[in-house]
UniProtKB/TrEMBL annotation:
InterPro entries: BP-dependent_transpt_permease, MetI-like, MetI-like_sf. It comes from Tersicoccus solisilvae. The keyword Transmembrane applies. The keyword Repeat does not apply. The chain crosses the membrane at residues 32-53, 113-139, 146-167, 173-194, 225-246, 282-304. SUPFAM superfamilies: MetI-like. It is found in: Cell inner membrane; Cell membrane. Residues 115-301 form the ABC transmembrane type-1 domain. This is ABC transporter permease. PROSITE patterns: ABC_TM1 (PS50928).
Length: 386
């Protein structure tokens, strides 16, 4: 009778050794800053924010750019961009419109307004969605029924029609009112996600322990459950803000969003749409900044999702190659029936490999593997032995 050792293979070749002894915050930060696209997106997004704010100023504080978005200097070079790569900016690097306004100044002002509306929508929708979802998921019963029916009413309203109505009303009342109105029609998805998280977390042992200790409902919600939903909230808020800037752009393009004298990236495209064939640069720069902002927000959300979700594992080609070499060495020795000690892909834990019924089992207890003793019966079927 022969015996074979079976070990459950770890889910990935990457070990959890580097994160041992670290707090949850440090683990999340390490995973996030290991996401190259997310880190690059943060850098680009911060550059866009800094340039847009400092070039045109904020409120009474003037900017460093020589022109404002309202000034109409004489046309230079027929209004075409004076930017000569790489550093020859000239008087109007982005060009001018038909009346002579500097397009760089208008694009930076439009970026400011679009970012302000995006943040307003994100904050308002986040607050409403978190409150509604947490109350519905924690208290359940009639509270959940009432709040979810209100959410369902908002969900079935066509988003485009609702956005057009509130955009028209908000555009007449200023940029802040537009952001508030749009925030009131975009919170429903976040509320449902937060509710689902609360329904799951309220049944956990740490919540029961808090109740036994005499904690109030508000303390359980804000101190124990809500911090465990930060990952879901953060990721979905970034995606919500990315969709918000596209909604504002679409409304402004249709004339239902930001109105003059204020401008946004969408309104810039709408104002200059008649000059698309003769002055295409009037579309290049506002469109480019819309794409940059949306891509940066989406990549940041991607990085946050990977950082907060423990099931997300970073693919490592080096680890795959090491595991392949390990498998080859174990395959060569498995025919003799002997155990081959090999090194883990990312740690020094010994990994045991042995072939059984034509399959190779490998893993280590520290990587999640479990040792199970098997013995072969006379008919060749494996039987478990305690």
């Amino acid at each position: 009778m022969s015996t074979a050792t079976e070990q459950t293979a770890p889910p990935t070749p990457q070990s959890d050794e580097p994160t041992k002894g670290l707090s949850q915050g440090r683990i999340v930060a390490r995973k996030f800053f290991g996401h190259t696209a997310a880190v690059a997106s943060i850098v680009v997004f911060l550059l866009v924010v800094i340039i847009s704010v400092t070039s045109q100023g904020l409120g009474p504080i003037p900017g460093w750019w020589k022109w404002t978005y309202e000034q109409t200097p004489p046309l230079v070079n027929g209004g075409a961009p004076t930017w000569v790569l790489p550093f020859g900016f000239g008087e109007h690097p982005f060009g001018q419109d038909r009346v002579g306004r500097d397009l760089f100044a208008m694009t930076m002002r439009g970026t400011q307004i679009s970012l302000f509306i995006m943040v307003t929508i994100g904050v308002l929708a986040g607050v409403v969605g978190i409150i509604v979802g947490s109350l519905a998921g924690f208290f359940r019963g009639w509270v959940e029924a009432v709040l979810m029916r209100i959410t369902d009413v908002f969900i079935v309203i066509p988003t485009l029609i609702a956005a057009a109505i509130v955009g028209k009303a908000g555009g007449q009342g200023g940029v802040l009112l537009l952001g508030v109105f749009l925030g009131l029609v975009t919170w429903m998805l976040l509320a449902r996600l937060v509710r689902a998280e609360f329904l799951s977390l309220r049944e956990r042992e740490f919540v029961d322990a808090a109740r036994i200790a005499g904690a109030s409902n508000s303390r359980i919600i804000f101190k124990h459950i809500l911090p465990n939903t930060v990952g879901v909230i953060t990721v979905n808020l970034t995606l919500l803000m990315s969709a918000a800037i596209l909604t504002e752009t679409a409304l402004s393009y249709l004339g239902l969003g930001v109105r003059q004298p204020d401008i946004s990236l969408g309104s810039l495209i709408s104002i200059n749409q008649a000059a698309f064939s003769t002055r295409p640069w009037l579309f290049w720069w506002p469109g480019l900044f819309i794409v940059i902002i949306c891509l940066c927000i989406n990549f940041i959300g991607d990085g946050l999702r990977d950082a907060f979700d423990p099931r997300q594992k970073k693919f490592s080609l080096r680890a795959i190659r090491r595991l392949s070499a390990t498998t080859g060495a174990a395959d060569a020795a498995a025919g003799s029936g002997r155990t081959v000690p090999v090194t883990g892909a990312e740690s020094d834990d010994p990994v045991t490999a042995r072939r059984h019924d034509g399959e190779l089992y490998r893993g280590s207890p520290s990587a999640g593997g479990q040792n199970t003793r098997l013995e072969l019966d006379d008919d060749g079927e494996p039987g478990r032995r305690d």
